[in-house]
Write a structure and sequence with these properties.
The complex is a heterodimer of chains A (135) and B (387). Chain A has 135 residues and is mainly β. Chain A has one helix spanning 14-22; strands spanning 26-30, 35-36, 53-56, 60-69, 81-88, 93-98, 111-118, 124-130. Classes of the chains: A mainly beta (135), B alpha/beta (387).
């Protein structure tokens, strides 16, 4: 742990963290307009519907952008690490790490699959690793 | 003077305090006070002639961030504002201009001193407040801008050398500006920037802005009142804001935020009746080298993706076609928290007055802009000499 910031779930975000703890990645989905979005908001940012829900995703996607962080923002991180925007196949994006590969070898457009990593008893974070480690 | 012309907003006073890595003998309140009173004095006004205060500071002293706690000093206040971004830079200028244009106040002082490094009072934007889906992955301001830059480089072939040329150009302007925190440091070559240690790819240390302490303020009044004041009045010709999502919280996708400022720029230039090619000098937010390249594109100086090649022509130098931050910007002059935004306004005003340290000859039109892609919002103003 040693200082890495650990999320404090709110009523809005607890289902996300409940799901990752169970081993699932679930993202906000609005049945009203059929769109995924992230980060969670009280209402769908596209149609303002309040009745959106968390829905399971396949957990696969591509690296939309990546930066190799050499200077961490604070304690608790081993540098360098690959901070990426991962675009899931459902079309929604999130910040995460790409692991299981040297950070400098992570490429935009690379196929990745989610891995869930427990940080604390409450919080399990999604990370991503190359779908085919040899690619 | 028509009623509209009489009420046109103009900047008539500016003041920047010392800017330094640390000013341990000063408090944010003391620096904010110096900045505000200095700007009022520069305008040729008495503090009691000011009736609006958009002032921000991070304590101790007064009620931090509440401009109204300056009421006794400034006399009969008719207008205040209590939010840090509304009391800084372009957004502060636009709101003060709206106030004087609507006749809600006649003379407004905008600015202050918010010291990020001291951690008192309100948390600065992008720091302090927990970001549930960013902090856990070690995301922070530099990394968020880096994610935008990396995608641009992937898509358009923008190179680390082009980024480094931006950093070297602006840093070398600051190097010869005695007021700059980095005065005397440098000059830097492209190779020097590329040889500095990596912070978050593609950014090296010298691609990133400095961090320090200092205050800044400026005074906005109407053209009618400015006619009786000593300084060359600098008019707001057009201004605009643009927003996307929560700063530093949501993933900064290039296809969503990479051209932020384009729509605001079109509105501001439209109101000014001038285009980007008419601008003699730019005072832009340069938290890193890439953000300048991005803004050259978003503001319409070149097509999307051609900002890197444009920089290679020498365009952003003091003697270039589109001079950017001749004072050294945030890369070398100063970054002091929120009031770095007011420092950009001050540089634009001084360029138009003809009193800048690195003066662009006969500058008549300036653009000043704050925030950018990583921040997911943008504000800009087109300023010009009134006559």
């Amino acid at each position: 742990m040693s200082g890495r910031p650990v999320p404090t779930p709110s009523a809005l975000t607890a289902p996300f963290w409940d799901a990752t703890r169970r081993g699932e990645l679930r993202m906000p989905f609005c049945d009203g307009c059929g769109s995924w979005f992230f980060t969670p908001e009280a209402r769908c940012p596209r149609c303002l519907a309040a009745g959106w829900r968390y829905r399971g995703v396949a957990g696969t996607g591509t690296v939309y952008s990546v930066t190799v962080v050499h200077r961490a923002p604070g304690p608790g991180f081993d540098v360098p690490f690959a901070l990426a925007i991962v675009e899931l196949d459902e079309g929604v994006s999130l910040l995460s790490h790409v692991v299981g590969v040297a950070p400098e070898d992570v490429r935009i457009g690379q196929r990745v699959r989610v891995r869930l990593r427990p940080l604390t008893e409450r919080i399990t974070v999604p990370e991503f690793a190359p779908e085919d480690p040899t690619s | 003077m028509s009623r509209d012309d009489a009420r046109r907003a103009v900047v008539v006073g500016v003041h920047a305090t010392d800017q330094a890595l640390s000013l341990p003998h000063r408090t944010p309140h003391d620096l904010a006070l110096e900045a505000a009173l200095g700007a009022i004095r520069d305008a040729g006004l008495d503090p009691r002639e000011v009736d609006g205060a958009q002032l921000d500071w991070s304590g101790p002293g007064g009620a931090a961030g509440e401009g109204s706690s300056w009421a006794r000093l400034l006399g009969d206040l008719a207008w205040t504002s209590d939010a840090q971004l509304d009391n800084s830079g372009v957004r502060g200028l636009l709101k003060a201009s709206a106030a004087v244009g609507a006749g809600l106040a006649h003379t407004v002082v905008v600015g202050g001193c918010k010291l990020v490094s001291r951690g008192t009072g309100n948390a600065p934007v992008g720091a302090g407040a927990p970001l549930e889906f960013a902090d856990v992955w070690g995301s922070y301001v530099v990394a968020q801008f880096a994610l935008v830059a990396a995608r641009h480089m992937h898509r358009f072939g923008t190179t680390p050398e082009q980024l480094a040329l931006v950093a070297a150009t602006i840093r070398n302007a600051g190097s010869t500006n005695p007021e700059a925190m980095m005065a005397g440091r440098g000059p830097y070559s492209v190779a020097d920037v590329l040889a500095s240690r990596l912070v978050a790819t593609p950014f090296h240390l010298l691609d990133c802005c400095i961090v320090g302490e200092g205050g800044a303020a400026f005074v906005v009044t109407t053209a009618e009142r400015a006619a009786d004041l000593p300084a060359t009045p600098v008019a707001l010709l057009g201004g605009a804001m643009e927003y996307h999502q929560a700063a530093y919280a949501d993933p900064p996708r290039y296809d969503e935020v990479g051209q932020i400022g384009r729509r605001a720029g079109a509105r501001a230039f439209g109101a000014a009746g001038r285009g980007p090619q008419d601008v003699d000098v730019f005072a832009l937010y340069d938290p890193n080298s890439f953000e300048v390249i991005r803004q050259l594109e978003a503001l319409g100086l070149c097509a999307e993706g051609e900002g890197g090649p444009l920089v290679e022509t020498g365009a952003i130098g003091v003697d270039g076609k589109h001079p950017v931050n001749p004072d050294g910007g945030c890369l070398a002059h100063a970054w002091n928290g929120t009031q770095q935004m007011s420092l950009r306004v001050i540089e634009a005003v001084r360029q138009l007055r003809g009193t800048a340290v690195h003066q662009v000859p006969d500058a008549r039109t300036a653009v000043v802009a704050n925030a950018g892609a990583g921040a997911q919002h943008y504000e800009l103003a087109v300023l010009g000499r009134l006559s």
